[in-house]
TrEMBL record:
<dbReference type="GO" id="GO:0003954">
    <property type="term" value="F:NADH dehydrogenase activity"/>
</dbReference>
<feature type="transmembrane region" description="Helical">
    <location>
        <begin position="6"/>
        <end position="25"/>
    </location>
</feature>
<feature type="transmembrane region" description="Helical">
    <location>
        <begin position="310"/>
        <end position="336"/>
    </location>
</feature>
<feature type="transmembrane region" description="Helical">
    <location>
        <begin position="252"/>
        <end position="270"/>
    </location>
</feature>
<dbReference type="GO" id="GO:0012505">
    <property type="term" value="C:endomembrane system"/>
</dbReference>
<dbReference type="GO" id="GO:0008137">
    <property type="term" value="F:NADH dehydrogenase (ubiquinone) activity"/>
</dbReference>
<dbReference type="GO" id="GO:0042773">
    <property type="term" value="P:ATP synthesis coupled electron transport"/>
</dbReference>
<feature type="transmembrane region" description="Helical">
    <location>
        <begin position="172"/>
        <end position="192"/>
    </location>
</feature>
<feature type="transmembrane region" description="Helical">
    <location>
        <begin position="32"/>
        <end position="55"/>
    </location>
</feature>
<dbReference type="GO" id="GO:0016020">
    <property type="term" value="C:membrane"/>
</dbReference>
<dbReference type="Pfam" id="PF00662">
    <property type="entry name" value="Proton_antipo_N"/>
</dbReference>
<dbReference type="Pfam" id="PF00361">
    <property type="entry name" value="Proton_antipo_M"/>
</dbReference>
<dbReference type="InterPro" id="IPR018393">
    <property type="entry name" value="NADHpl_OxRdtase_5_subgr"/>
</dbReference>
<dbReference type="InterPro" id="IPR003945">
    <property type="entry name" value="NU5C-like"/>
</dbReference>
<feature type="transmembrane region" description="Helical">
    <location>
        <begin position="453"/>
        <end position="471"/>
    </location>
</feature>
<keyword id="KW-0472">Membrane</keyword>
<feature type="domain" description="NADH:quinone oxidoreductase/Mrp antiporter transmembrane">
    <location>
        <begin position="135"/>
        <end position="427"/>
    </location>
</feature>
C-alpha cells in the first residue's frame, strides 16, 4: 500500500510541479506543451491505474501523508490525501477530461503570445482541484477550494487587455467569495462544535454529538457549507457569474464547466453526506434550490444568441439536476450525472471552440449557418453533444438523468419530478435549436480554416465518451445510501423518454417556419424574451438592491467619517508642534527662563498638594 500511496501523492503534485517549472523558467512552446500536457497525462494514467487496482473493491481506502501542516493546541492538520470510491471517480474525471482539454489547447492557443502563462494557470487549476477532492480534512479542501477560485479568476481574465474580461473575472471572484466566506464560517463552527476538521472524523462526531435529527447546530453548519457550494457551483441565487465567465479562452470554459470549479460544490455536499443527512430541512432546501436553478438556467438558455452563453446557462441547469438529486438523498445519481455531464459538456465547449476558431471568432449563432458539410467533424461532435445534453436514449446523458428522475419518484418528491421533466423538455428544445440554427440554417459565412488535427482528435475521443460514458462505474453505487426502488407508472416511465423528441419536433417546426431569430413585435412577449435573455434580470436586481446603495453610501461617505477623527488628531498634533516649536529659537536666556518657569510651576503644584492633604 505504500507504493500506491506514493502514486496517489503524485496525482496532484505532477501538475503542481509543472506549473512551478513553467512559472520560473522560459521554455519554448514545444517544451511548454510537453511539460504541461505530460504532467496532467501522467496524473491521468496513475488515476486509471488506481481504477484498475481498486475496481472490484467497493469499500477500499488509501491514504497518503505528505507531512504535518498545522499543530496548534487542539488543531492538528496534516497535509494528507484520502482516496475512496468517491474521490477515485472525481480524480478520474478531473485528470482524464483535463488531459484532453490540455491537449486540445495546444492547437487552440498555439498562436497566442502568452502560451506559457496559459498552461501555467491551467496546470495550477487542475492541481488545486485535485487537492480539493483528495483532501482528508476540510482545511486542505478549503485550500484547494480557494486555489480553483484564484485560477478561475486568472483564466477568465486571461486576455486582460479587454476591460470586459477584467470585469467578468472580478464578478466571478467576488460572487464566489460570498459563498466562500459562509463556508469559512462553517469550518470554524464545525471545529468549535466537533473538535476536528478531519472529514471522516467529522461524520462520526456529528452522529454522537448531534444525536437528534434536525439539530439546530447541524442545520446551521450545513447551511454555511451549502453557501460555499452555491457560490462555486453557480446555484440560485449566486448563479449569474457563470455566463460572464465565458470571457476566457474556450478551453478554459470547458475546464471550468466539465472537470473543475463548478463541480466542487457537488463534491462538497457528497463528501459530507452523513453530516447533511442530519439536517433534513437543509436537504430539502438543497433540492428546492436545485429545482429553481435547473428551470432558471434552462429557460434562459432557450433564448440566447451567444454560443457560449447557451452552454453556460445549460451548465447552470444541469448542476441544478445534481443539487436536486443530492437534496433527495440520491447522491450516487448526482455524481453519476456529474461524470456524464463532464464528457458531453467538455465535448460541446470544445466543439464551440473549434467553431469559433474556424469562423473568425464569431459567437452569434444567427451569424452562422449551413456548416453541416463545411465542418463535418465539428457538426458530428455538436450532434452527439446535443443529443447527450437532451438525454436522448442510449447516450450517456440519458442514463444519468433518467436515474435522477427515477429516484425522485422513489423518494416521493413528485413535484420535483414534474419540474425536472419540464427542465428536460426545455433542454432538448434549446439543444435542437442550437444545432439546427448553426448547422442547418442558411449559410451566413464560410469557415476560413479547419480545426487543427489535434483538436479534431480530442473531439472524436469525447464523442466516444459522450455516447458510451453511461456505463456506471461500480464504485458510484456505494457512494451514498440507496433509496428503496419502486415501480414506475407507465406515464412516469415513458414521459421523460418521449418529451425530448416532442421538444426536438417543436424546435424543427419553429426552425422551418423561420421563427428563430425573428423580431418579436408583441410588447409583452418582447419584454418576457428580454427578461429570459438577461438571465431573469438577476444582474439588474443585484445592481438595484446591493451595488447602487453601496455606491451611494460610498459617495456619501467619500470623506470617510471614521478617518475624520484621526485626521483631527493629526491636525491637533501639527498645531501643537507648530506652537511648541516656536520655543526652540536658539536663545539661551529663553531656555533658562522656560526652565525656571517650569520649576516654579512644579514647585507650586507640589506645595498645593501638600497643603490640601
Amino acid at each position: 500500500m505504500t507504493y500506491y500511496a506514493s502514486l496517489l501523492s503524485l496525482i496532484p503534485l505532477l501538475p503542481l510541479f509543472s506549473a512551478l517549472i513553467l512559472l520560473f523558467s522560459k521554455p519554448n512552446k514545444l517544451t511548454t506543451a510537453l511539460l504541461a500536457v505530460g504532467s496532467i497525462s501522467g496524473a491521468a494514467c496513475i488515476s486509471l491505474f488506481l481504477n484498475f487496482v481498486f475496481w472490484q473493491q467497493t469499500d477500499f481506502v488509501l491514504t497518503s501523508n505528505l507531512g504535518n501542516w498545522i499543530k496548534i493546541a487542539q488543531l492538528h492538520i496534516n497535509f494528507s490525501l484520502y482516496l475512496d470510491a468517491l474521490s477515485l471517480v472525481m480524480i478520474t474525471i478531473i485528470t482524464g477530461v483535463g488531459a484532453l482539454i490540455h491537449l486540445y489547447s495546444i492547437g487552440f492557443m498555439y498562436q497566442d503570445k502568452d502560451f506559457k502563462r496559459y498552461f501555467t494557470y491551467l496546470n495550477l487549476f487542475v492541481s488545486a482541484m485535485l487537492f480539493l477532492v483528495l483532501a482528508d480534512n476540510l482545511l486542505l479542501l478549503y485550500l484547494g477550494w480557494e486555489g480553483v477560485g484564484l485560477c478561475s479568476y486568472l483564466l477568465i481574465g486571461f486576455w486582460y487587455q479587454d476591460r470586459d474580461n477584467n470585469l467578468a473575472a472580478n464578478k466571478a471572484f467576488l460572487m464566489t467569495r460570498i459563498g466562500d466566506t459562509a463556508m469559512a464560517l462553517g469550518l470554524f463552527l464545525l471545529f468549535i462544535e466537533l473538535g476536528t476538521l478531519n472529514i471522516q472524523d467529522l461524520q462520526v462526531q456529528a452522529l454522537s454529538v448531534w444525536s437528534s435529527s434536525n439539530n439546530n447546530m447541524a442545520n446551521l453548519c450545513c447551511l454555511l457549507l451549502l453557501g460555499g457550494a452555491l457560490g462555486k457551483s453557480a446555484q440560485f441565487p449566486l448563479q449569474n457569474w457563470l455566463p460572464d465567465a465565458m470571457a476566457g479562452p474556450t478551453p478554459v470554459s470547458a475546464l471550468i464547466h466539465a472537470a473543475t470549479m463548478v463541480t466542487a460544490g457537488i463534491y462538497l455536499i457528497a463528501r459530507n453526506s452523513q453530516l447533511f443527512q442530519m439536517a433534513p430541512d437543509v436537504m430539502y432546501l438543497i433540492a428546492f434550490i436545485g429545482t429553481i436553478t435547473l428551470l432558471l438556467g434552462a429557460s434562459a438558455a432557450m433564448v440566447q444568441s451567444d454560443l457560449k452563453r447557451i452552454l453556460a446557462y445549460s451548465t447552470i441547469s444541469q448542476l441544478g439536476y445534481m443539487f436536486l438529486a443530492l437534496g433527495v438523498g440520491a447522491g450516487a445519481s448526482a455524481v453519476f450525472h456529474l461524470m456524464t455531464h463532464a464528457f458531453f459538456k467538455a465535448l460541446l465547449f470544445l466543439s464551440a471552440g473549434a467553431l469559433i476558431y474556424s469562423l473568425h471568432h464569431e459567437h452569434n449563432i444567427f451569424k452562422m449557418g449551413g456548416l453541416l458539410k463545411k465542418l463535418p467533424i465539428v457538426a458530428t461532435s455538436f450532434a452527439i453533444g446535443c443529443a447527450a445534453l437532451a438525454s436522448l436514449p442510449f447516450t450517456s446523458g440519458f442514463f444519468s438523468k433518467e436515474l435522477i428522475l427515477e429516484q425522485l419518484i422513489d423518494s416521493g418528491h413528485t413535484n420535483f419530478w414534474w419540474a425536472a421533466v419540464l427542465g428536460a423538455f426545455i433542454t432538448a428544445f434549446y439543444s435542437a435549436r442550437l444545432f439546427f440554427v448553426v448547422f442547418l440554417g442558411d449559410s451566413k459565412q464560410s469557415p476560413d480554416k479547419q480545426p487543427e488535427k489535434i483538436m479534431s482528435l480530442v473531439l472524436l475521443l469525447l464523442c466516444f465518451f459522450s455516447l458510451f460514458g453511461g456505463i456506471q462505474p461500480s464504485g458510484i453505487q456505494t457512494l451514498m445510501p440507496k433509496l428503496n426502488a419502486s415501480g414506475l407508472t407507465t406515464l412516469q416511465h415513458w414521459l421523460p423518454i418521449v418529451l425530448p423528441f416532442i421538444a426536438i419536433s417543436l424546435a424543427w417546426w419553429m426552425f422551418k417556419t423561420n421563427l428563430f431569430g425573428k423580431t418579436i413585435t408583441v410588447p409583452a412577449l418582447q419584454y418576457f424574451h428580454q427578461l429570459l435573455k438577461s438571465g431573469w434580470a438577476f444582474d439588474r436586481i443585484y445592481q438595484v438592491i446591493f451595488v447602487s446603495p453601496f455606491k451611494f453610501l460610498c459617495q456619501l461617505n467619500k470623506s470617510d467619517i471614521i478617518d475624520l477623527h484621526y485626521r483631527a488628531l493629526e491636525k491637533i498634533s501639527k498645531l501643537l508642534h507648530k506652537k511648541f516649536s516656536q520655543f526652540q529659537n536658539g536663545k539661551l536666556r529663553c531656555y533658562n527662563a522656560s526652565l525656571i518657569i517650569f520649576c516654579v510651576l512644579a514647585f507650586a503644584w507640589f506645595i498645593k498638594g501638600a497643603l490640601m492633604s
